[in-house]
UniProtKB/TrEMBL annotation:
It comes from Trichoderma parareesei. This is G domain-containing protein. Residues 116-195 form the G domain. Its cofactor is Mg(2+). GO terms for cellular component: membrane. Gene3D superfamilies: P-loop containing nucleotide triphosphate hydrolases (3.40.50.300). Residues 39-50 have a biased composition (Low complexity). Residues 17-80 are annotated as: Disordered. It is found in: Membrane; Plastid, Chloroplast outer membrane.
Length: 410
């Protein structure tokens, strides 16, 4: 897990991040809290056009520059002379409120820290992507199908002069963690973020183009990802393919077309963007820059648990997990019944070697069944707790996160 670090807050409602995780920490960067952003009136919220992924972030950069030119706030933070003349001649009685709102908008795009989640299946290259984007060489990177990321990790860097924090998460169908445990871990993190009013700027979902087919685990991962995120937030998602060096151009192109036309079609219909990641630092930073000027948002799971006060099992992602647990338990019960019959037949034949192998397999199946029942019980028990109990447990889990890592959560 990652540490939850409550940021200091200045008189201007800007939270200041002070990192103690680097030998030479980058200069402190102030970011505007979502609470301050929400003070803007609807007719004062300027919407920036989304950038084109083929041309990097030029569209957003031009929009920001245009906004800065029209702003009454100068580059040094002072009021422009033109604004003074307008207020004097035009008789604007509430210009100070307008200045405050414009300053908020200015800083929203100029001074905020960026939070980007990186998700995908085990082996998709999530940690490698973050290492490429940050230049970190000390991250534990797996080179097999065995998971290395068993906790949420926060890795910070600076891109285009702005602080960017990448959230590295374990994927569903993890080697060591059950889907229930992964969901609980992500839910804890998101709940902590909601309580601090901290939002994501975007999500990068990685898929290895080297996979010759989209497996059941991959489609299940996508379903869980969509329910965690919510359809309305898919416009803030980048679907990126990795490991192009492991396929021929023709193979990669065919798989790319299949992903976009079939498995990712719903995501892209809701506004998700697609691009290739070539495993270079330049590529990773360019993909991240596509999300940096997004309007920060809460994930669906955050709103369901934080605003609607739903139990985890009653969220969209939680219902998906409960459905999977029910199906898995039914399948395991059927397989155990078949295994018992096989054991009885083998015992009658007095084949000791076969009996030993079957008993070992039966024991493993029983362990799997017990794990499924335990996960189902945990979800149900969590739903039955009172609000006070949930708050107390979340607080305790956050304290554990603080002791476990030297990185801030948000």
């Amino acid at each position: 897990m990652a540490r939850v670090d409550t940021p200091d807050v200045s008189d201007d409602d800007f939270a200041i991040f002070n990192s103690a995780t680097f030998d030479s920490p980058p200069p402190a960067v102030s970011y505007q809290t979502p609470k301050l952003i929400s003070r803007l009136q609807p007719n004062q919220q300027q919407q920036l056009p989304r950038g084109n992924h083929d041309s990097g972030n030029n569209g957003d950069a031009a929009a920001v520059a245009s906004s800065a030119e029209k702003s009454p706030i100068s580059n040094d933070g002072s009021l422009s002379s033109s604004f003074y003349s307008q207020t004097k001649d035009g008789g604007h009685g509430s210009y100070m409120k307008y200045v405050s709102n414009m300053k908020s908008m200015y800083n929203k795009f100029r001074g905020k820290d960026i939070l980007i989640a990186v998700m995908g299946m085990t082996g998709s290259g999530k940690t490698t992507f973050i290492a490429n984007a940050t230049g970190r060489t000390d991250l534990q990177i797996g080179h097999t199908l065995t998971s290395c990321t068993q906790e949420i990790q926060i890795i910070e860097t600076t891109i285009d002069g702005r602080t960017v924090r990448f959230v590295d998460t374990p994927g569903f169908s993890d080697t060591y963690l059950s889907d229930t445990e992964v969901l609980e871990m992500i839910a804890d993190y998101l709940s902590a973020g909601y309580s601090k009013e901290m939002r994501l700027s975007g999500i990068i979902y990685l898929h290895p183009i080297s996979d010759n087919r989209v497996t059941h685990h991959a489609t299940k991962n996508l379903d869980m990802f969509r329910k965690l995120t919510g359809e309305k937030n898919l416009k803030n998602v980048i679907l990126a393919t990795s490991m192009w060096d492991k396929v021929s151009p023709e193979e990669g192109l065919n798989r790319e077309r299949e992903l976009q036309g079939n498995f990712w079609s719903v995501f892209m219909a809701f506004g998700a963007q697609y691009c290739r990641h070539d495993a270079s630092a330049q590529s990773a930073k360019k993909i991240a820059s596509m999300l940096m000027d997004n309007e920060p948002f809460f994930l669906e799971l955050q709103e369901e648990m934080g605003k609607d006060n739903k139990a985890l099992k009653d969220t969209a992602a939680g219902r998906e997990i409960m459905s999977q647990l029910s199906q898995l338990k039914e399948q395991q019960q059927k397989e155990l019944a078949e295994m018992k019959e096989m054991l009885l037949r083998t015992a009658a034949e007095e084949n000791k070697a076969a009996m030993a192998a079957l008993e070992h397999h039966y024991k493993k199946m029983m362990e799997g069944m017990e794990k499924t029942i335990s996960d189902e019980r945990r979800m149900n028990e969590e739903a039955a707790k009172s609000s006070e109990e949930k708050i107390k447990e979340l607080t305790e889990r956050i304290h554990k996160l603080e002791k476990k890592s030297s990185c801030v959560v948000m």
